[in-house]
Amino acid sequence: TYRQEMYANFDDERYRERNKVETAFSVLKRRFGEELKARKYWYQVKEIKIKVILHNLTKAVQTVVIVVVWKEFNRAVFPLTLSRSPGE
Which of 57, 72, 54 is nearest to 46 (CA)? Predict the structure, then answer.
């Protein structure tokens, strides 16, 4: 039957990837809204691409900020260990 064939050919690894995609779409919709302002198809495609690029830039900036804050935190907490050379 169809159901038996479906269970036999079900790919667990590929299905787990779906969760990542659904999460990414959810984040984009929450951040930029579900609706598109453009009316024509190609402008809608451009609008979606712009939203994805903005999302990626936001994530990149967040990563840089985290790295800078982490370095400053370590410098403030461990001032002597970071300023000395290993041979001193």
Answer: 54
pLDDT digit string (tens) for 5-63?
888 888 888 888 888 889 989 999 999 999 999 999 999 999 999 999 999 999 999 88
Three-class secondary structure assignment of the chain: CHHHHHHHCCCHHHHHHHHHHHHHHHHHHHHHCCCCCCCCHHHHHHHHHHHHHHHHHHHHHHHHHHHHHHHHHHHHHCHHHHHCCCCC
Phi-psi region for residue 67, left (φ > 0), alpha (ψ -120 to 50) or beta?
alpha
Describe the crossing of helices 41-77 and 12-32 by its angle, rounded to 10 degrees. Answer: 90
First CA to last CA across the chain, in angstroms? Answer: 76
